[in-house]
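[job 4471] stage=fold_predict status=RUNNING
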Amino acid sequence: MKIAIIGGSGFVGTSLINKLKEDNNYQVKNLDIAQSRKHHEITSITDIRDYCSLTKSLAGCDCVVLHCLPPNIETTYLQYHCITTLT
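[job 4471] inference complete, writing structure tokens
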């Protein structure tokens, strides 16, 4: 089974990839906007906001694990919950 991890370059994503790679039944692919320090050989630099790039990167995958956050979650939260409420 081929599994794509979206956002697997961080601490939790790297741990998940480590576990999945221990089992030879899985082929793992990491899609992230940042290069993985530990799993560079399976990382594809992909911006998930780019539909064409994402579609290409996911081709042939049986399963997708979405594990990512916006680069600045605090700003995003404030913009969504506070600024849109005020306007």
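[job 4471] summary: Residues 75-87 have pLDDT under 50 and may be disordered.
[job 4471] exit 0
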